[in-house]
Structure prediction request, 339 residues.
Amino acid sequence: MAARILRDPARSSDCRHQGLSAREGEKEVMNFQIYGIDAASGAAILALDVQPGDHVLDLCAAPGAKLCMLADMLGSTGSLTGIDVAKHRLSACRTMLQKYSLGDRTRLFVADGTLFSILPVNSNLRRMEGSIDLEESGSTFSEWTSRRTWKDRQKAKKANATGSQHLLAPSEPELIYYGKHSGLVGLRKSDVLCPAVNDEACTSGYDKVLVDAECTHDGSIKHIQKFEFWGWKTLDRRVLDAERTDNLLQLQLNLLSNGFRLLKTGGSLVYSTCSLTVAQNENVVQQFLSTQPSADLRKLGLANTWPCRSGGIPKTLRFDPVTSQTSGLFVAKFSKLST
Ligand SMILES: C[S@@+](CC[C@H](N)C(=O)[O-])C[C@H]1O[C@@H](n2cnc3c(N)ncnc32)[C@H](O)[C@@H]1O
Prediction:
C-alpha cells in the first residue's frame, strides 16, 4: 500500500485518532503513518485487505481516521459508505474527508449501525440523464452541495434546540455527504435509499465491512489519560458502570451481526475494538460465531510480521502497549460462506 503522509505535524488537532505512535520498525512493517492513526488501528484496515473496485462499509465511522485510510486505499475505484449514530462526530469526519480530498467515492449516513440496511449502489439502476423535469429533479441526486434547503435548516434548528442531534439516530438514515463519484448522481433517491430485502445482501452487498465498534476505549492510552482531567466519577460512569457495559456488549454484538448481514457471500468483515477486555472482544466473537453458521473466522497471514500477539481465540489478534508499543486493539476477521 502506498500511503500518503497527509498529517500536518504542526497541527496536531488533525490527529483525530490518537494513541501512541508506531515505533520506527512498525512504520516500516506497516508502511503507513497517516491521519494520526496509530499502527494498531492501521492494522485493522490492512486486515480488511481492500482491493480496487471493492464496495466498503464502515459501520462506526466517526470521527473518521480509519475511514480516511480506507478511502486512501480504495483510490479511484469502488465505493465507501460510512455510518455513525452521532451526527456531530460524522460531520467532523466529513470535514476531514473534504480537507484531504478523499471523499470522492464516499457517502456518509447518520444512522444506527445495528439497523442500517442500504446496500452499495447497484450498477443496474437507471440513471436520469439529460433534461429532467422539475418534479423528477427533486427526487433525483444532483451533485452534492453543502448548501441546505430551508426545510433542512429548520429541521437542524429544531434538533439543536432539543439537543437530540447529539444523542439519537434519525429513524431513517440521513445522508449528510456524497462524493461526485459515489455513484449517486443521477439516480432516483427512492432507488438508492430503499432497504435491502431478505438475503439480497448475499449477492449485492458489500465486499468489505469494518465494524470498529463502540467500546469502553480502555486500551486507548490517550483516552484513559483524559480521565485525569475528567475525574473518577466520569470514569466510573463511562467505563466501570456495569449496566453501561452490559448494554455495550449487546450493542457490539448487534453491530457485528448487522455488518455481517450486509456482507456479500465471499466478502470479509473485520471486527475491532480499542478495549483490552475479554468481554468486549473474544466473548463477542464467540457469541457471534455460535449464531452465524456462515461466518468463518480467518487467520491473518499478514500478521506474521506485525508486532502483536494472538487473542484468546486462535486467529484473533491483540495489540497492547507492552507487546506492540501501541495503544490496545483487538482484531478479528471473518469471511461469509455460502449457505
Ligand atoms: C471506536 S469509535 C469509531 C472510531 C472510528 N472508526 C475511527 O477510526 O475514527 C465508535 C463509534 O461508534 C459510534 N456508534 C455508537 N453506537 C452506534 C450505533 N448504534 N450505530 C453506529 N455507530 C455507533 C460512536 O458514535 C463512535 O463514533
About this structure: Residues 17, 60-66, 83-86, 89, 112-114, 212, 214, 251 surround S-adenosylmethionine (CB under 6 Å).
